[in-house]
Amino acid sequence: SRARERYRAGCPRKLGQRQRAQKVGRQTNRWSLRVSPSYQSGATMTSPTDHGLEQDAITLGGINLAFWLASLGLGKTWPVDFIWSCFPPLLCLLIIVREPETGVCERRIVGCTLVATWGFRLTHNFVSRGGVGHEDWRYSDMRRTFGRHFWWASLFSVFLGQAAFLFSACLSLYGVLCAPEPLTATDAAGAAVCFGAVLLEAASDLQMDAFVAARREHRTDATVIDRGLWMWSRHPNYLGELTWWWGLYLLGVPAAAPGWVVVGPVSMTFLFVCVSIKLMEDRQRGSKGEAWIKYTRAVPSPLLLVPPPINRRLGKWLHAAESGEAARSPLNG
Description:
Blueprint: H1 2-34, H2 53-74, H3 81-98, H4 105-128, H5 137-146, H6 150-169, H7 172-178, H8 185-216, H9 236-251, H10 263-288, H11 290-298, H12 308-328
Helix pairs in contact: 2-3, 2-6, 3-4, 3-7, 4-7, 4-8, 5-6, 6-10, 7-9, 8-9, 9-10
């Protein structure tokens, strides 16, 4: 009887232990439902195939193919410019619909809000500058280079070529929207960098638009902008765009994010530093001549923001160094 009494006295305690265990089990099950199968059992985002990259790449390729066909009918390639501002928001939607329970809700909200803001600004800037119906000078140069073969060459040189860079840049979005790790200081830094980049791009474009309007209304005789952020850098708008992609990368690199997402900002750095800046500067040098050369001496920094007084001193030093090298050249001897 004493053993029976001790058993009865211990039943409530054991029952409480079982109830707590069941509660923990239910909480664990709810958590497992929030995490995609690729993350369960301690797994991390290691394989691009876990998140439908192939389907998204095919989607982007299909959109570019449709825009290319439209450009053949229009006789101009301007539809391709909409890809840059419209595909990243579309990709966010595709990822969320495909994997609704993956990732962290707060990071998704921050990432999607930033991408939508960035895309809206870029689209508005393109439309307000008369981009619809107007072919970019780079594509016009390609049209002259390829001649009658441009209709098919543009599919690779204009549409699919840009699609490859854009898709690689968007790889960071898989980290932003799929990583299961909680928010950290890195996320805050990435969001701040993205927001600052959008502001930098907007300010640069507004200053350039004001300068172009002043020239059109004959309120200035200057052929090269010499005010605002453009006295800190020769391409502050490019700096803003490049900074945006690095900020998006920071937002998408919590502890579980894979290393392959870094391909995005690295590819964009290559595109701007090695291609876009060179093309733009060659064009400016050819069209504005001595005024552009004088501007490069006043603002020697092609990308990074450097205070104007330091820029001027650096420009004088570089000009003096170039003059000294030219004087010592055997060709001048």
